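WP5 quarterly update. Target: CACP acetyltransferase. Source organism: Nyctibius grandis. Length: 72 aa.
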Amino acid sequence: APVLAAAGGRGPGGVAGQVLHGGGACANSGNRWFDKTLQFIVGEDGTCGVVYDPAVIDGAVVAEMVDHALEY
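Structure tokens (predicted):
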């Protein structure tokens, strides 16, 4: 089902909530895999982001992958 609108809308607070934890148990948190090293988040409204575990993967590598994905 479509994701519920976040309280913060598409502003920094709303986007951060969607990307980091899915907006809560009544919204989209069921689609987050908190035990995975790397997650690409793509919302129906165009919101996108990456959540990763910095203890396992280097931030520079993730930045390169995101840049490549945005370019193509």
